[in-house]
Amino acid sequence: MLYETVALEDGLLEIELRRDFSYRLRYGDLVEYVDERRRVRGRSFPYEFRSVEQLRYDFEQDVKRAKGA
């Protein structure tokens, strides 16, 4: 299992990955990915896990959009 919390200037980044490919990625209250669901600015959507690399990319893109970048 990997668990990491990073304090950033504008919020907390939390990452949790388990051996069974369950996961939780969270960026403050803006973006959260938890086992086949993603929530962006309070709106929830289904999420299809394909790979750790794709999960990271999708999460980072949602964080950028949610922050208005």
Could you explain how this protein is built, in words?
It is built from one helix and six strands, in the order E-E-E-E-E-E-H. The protein has one domain (2-67). A hairpin with a 3-residue loop joins strand 3 (23-27) and strand 4. With 69 residues, the chain is an alpha+beta fold. It has a six-stranded antiparallel β-sheet, covered by helices on one side. The chain is globular and about 30 Å long.
Topology:
Layout lengths: L1 E7 L2 E7 L5 E5 L3 E4 L2 E4 L2 E4 L5 H16 L2
Antiparallel strand pairs: 1-2, 2-3, 3-4, 4-5, 5-6
Main sheet: strand order: 1-2-3-4-5-6
Q: What is the CA-based Rg, rounded?
A: 11 Å
Give the percentage of residues in beta strands. 35-45%
Q: Strand tally, please?
A: 6
User: What structural category characterises the helix and strand content?
Assistant: alpha+beta
Mean pLDDT: 93
In quaternary terms, these chains amount to single chain
The outline comes out as globular
Order of secondary-structure elements: EEEEEEH
Q: pLDDT below 50 for ≥5 consecutive residues: which ranges?
A: none
Distance between the termini: 31 Å
Could you estimate the helical fraction of the residues in percent?
10-25%
Largest sheet: 6 strands, antiparallel
User: How many independent structural domains?
Assistant: 1
Tally of DSSP helical segments: 1
